[in-house]
Structures are given as structure tokens and as C-alpha cells.
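Worked example 3 (structure in, sequence out).
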């Protein structure tokens, strides 16, 4: 009977948009603008890629007199698990579209999205992405790129990794 109780619990949670303990919110998000550096990066080099790019991007946005619209982000366009490579960008969200030397501009139109507020260090994030994938499959939604990870908490200001908030956004279209 325990198996049936567990199954009933999972079905009830998924009906309430809870997947593997993550609450998934469905929203219509406004358009967003980013200044970014995009390239193919090996999985092992993602943190180094951020360290190399986010500070300089932030400086460029400030030098342009532009206003940030959120916290630094990772934009993920394609995962190549066989080769361990990810097509991604380090990005700074801005209030308006702008062109800054030695960086790329990117915009996302207003559209439907799913979001998870993930708390914890970055090594646990794949579990939240797996929950999002299960949600998409259950609903029959088609994922749009990019996947956005917005790093709300600055680890330099909050030493406890359990309090680090990363907002994960998947844009989607219904079939």
C-alpha cells in the first residue's frame, strides 16, 4: 500500500506544479534585453567563463550609462552532452536594447515561461532542470531557447550556499 500512497502523493504534487520538491510557476513574462558574450564552453569551464565575462560585461553596461534590469544571467542555447560542450552566454539584463562594443545584444520577446526558484549551490541545479524537463513533457509543451539562469544572490555577499537563489526560466510554446 505504501507504493500506492507514494504514487498518489506524486500525482497530487504534479497536479499542483510541484516536481521533485520544486514549485514550477507558469507565467507570461515581459520582453527582456541582454548584453552578452556567447560561445561554446566545456562543462568544466562554465564557472571560469562566468568569471572572465560577467565583470567586464557589467563594466560595459555601466560605461554605456545603461541600467541593469535584474541580476547577472547564464543563457543556454544548446547542450551537447556527448562532447561535454554547452552553447551559452554570460549576460547582463538591461532595461532597454543597447549596443555595446565588444559584446552582443540579445532580446527575448514577451512570452510564456516556466520558472523555478532554486536555492542551493550550483552543483544541485541539474536536479531542478530535470524537474522542469518532466513538467514540459507532462504538459506537452515545446521548449524555446534560451534557458535562463538568473543568479539573484551574490555568493560574495551571502556565504551560506543554501541561501543562494537562482531563478531558472524556460520559455515554451504549447503544441
Amino acid at each position: 500500500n505504501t507504493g500506492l500512497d507514494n504514487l498518489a502523493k506524486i500525482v497530487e504534487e504534479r497536479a499542483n506544479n510541484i516536481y521533485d520538491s520544486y514549485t514550477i510557476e507558469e507565467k507570461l513574462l515581459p520582453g527582456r534585453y541582454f548584453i552578452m558574450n556567447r560561445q561554446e564552453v566545456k562543462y568544466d569551464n562554465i564557472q571560469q567563463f562566468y568569471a572572465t565575462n560577467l565583470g567586464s560585461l557589467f563594466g560595459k553596461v555601466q560605461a554605456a550609462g545603461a541600467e541593469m534590469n535584474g541580476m547577472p544571467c547564464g543563457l543556454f542555447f544548446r547542450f551537447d552532452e556527448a562532447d561535454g560542450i554547452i552553447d551559452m552566454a554570460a549576460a547582463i539584463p538591461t532595461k532597454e536594447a543597447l549596443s555595446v562594443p565588444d559584446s552582443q545584444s540579445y532580446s527575448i520577446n514577451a512570452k510564456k515561461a516556466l520558472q523555478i526558484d532554486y536555492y542551493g549551490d550550483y552543483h544541485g541545479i541539474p536536479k531542478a532542470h530535470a524537474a522542469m524537463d518532466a513538467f514540459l513533457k507532462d504538459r506537452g509543451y515545446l521548449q524555446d531557447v534560451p534557458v535562463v539562469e538568473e543568479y539573484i544572490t551574490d555568493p560574495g555577499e551571502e556565504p551560506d550556499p543554501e541561501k543562494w537563489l537562482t531563478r531558472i526560466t524556460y520559455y515554451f510554446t504549447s503544441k
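Notes: The mean pLDDT is 91. The longest strand covers residues 32-42.
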